[in-house]
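Q: Here's a chain of 223 amino acids. Please give me its 3D structure as tokens.
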Amino acid sequence: MFKTLRMKTALSVLLIMLSTPGWFSTASAQPTYAERLGWPEGSRVLILHVDDADMSAASNQGTIRAIEEGVANSFSVMMPTPWVPQIFQYISENPDADAGLNYYARQLYRERAGEESRLAGEALWESGPPVLDDLHNMSYGWAREEKISRYVDAVRGLKPGVTMMIMHCTEPDAAFTLISNSGPSRFGDLEAMLSDELAHALQEEKIILTTWRELHQRRRAIQ
């Protein structure tokens, strides 16, 4: 369990640096990071990543459902909370889970854009870890009732490269209202991850699903 978490922790620093869509995307004709990691030209590669897994017991339950019953395939643990042992137990019982630690360092990196962000991406790539071409983290502001259609539209609009979509999946729970008023939004994310509409869109668009674990393995193989 902890070996998996240590591996993902290193990647999570990179993950959280991506605080705006297109953080490391380039407008040039350079190969995408997906191509550099071995996928064919034009491939649209996607990580569906559940954030804040252990924000509550209901969040742990929602995360696990999104992974096991839905299309999500990666998640991060928010440290520390009283519900960490519960999700760590799940990780120990599922050693192949793509699980990592959530670091809150966004504000240090929010202002970079354009050429500077491209150079930052290249510097990270040269230092060893895999790099995303794009990040989608806009779903938090979507209304619950529109989330399925908005996710479907986002999938259909994916550009070539490696993209990560971030969501927050929580089961409906009265106790969660004592923690946050974001329960309906988080339940909407869970509904989307479980929906047939999103699963069909991923298949129809020939989206390649991947994980941080696979990105790391592919990056190591070409170093």
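Q: Can you summarize the key feature?
A: The longest strand covers residues 44-50.
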